[in-house]
Here is the input.
Amino acid sequence: MNALAIIVLAYLLGSLPFAVIVSRAFGLADPRSYGSGNPGATNVLRSGNKLAALLTLAGDAAKGWLAVWLAQRLGAEGTIVALAGLAAFLGHVFPLFLKFRGGKGVATALGVLAGLSGSLALAAAAAWLLVAWLTRYSSLAAIAAALATPLAGWLLLGDTRLVACVTVLAAILIWRHKENIRKLLAGTEGKIGR
Here is the structure.
């Protein structure tokens, strides 16, 4: 299969809006109609349905992992595999099926990292957990994990192509949190559990 077809397939896979799909399956309101309006697991959790939020999280992570796995199984070389992961992430953030208004990409990014390297995904998850535990801010934890991931990628993988894709992914993830950054600076960002 040619590289462009693999990347397009990965983007379409990433465009599957699990927050909307799971919410409809559970008879919940569209997650774009309340809370932050973000079609992601954190906003689904605001519906009060923890199972729906967990399934959204799992689906969003799985599509990132699956895009990388499929590219590997289709015989793509390393750069194309990394680009497939980036395409799945971009599909989540700018989904074709939701008029390019998607989620922030934290779970999908973690899935992509897990597909590229289990140790890199663990490092990112550990950074997220540590900052979330210390501060109780999910957004700050996501930003910290995104900042740490390129360095961790360089130390753990040493592959310039993979690190370049991970760096682009991290930069977009941080950019998607720009409103959260404003709220953090203003002291109005909501904490986990509130």
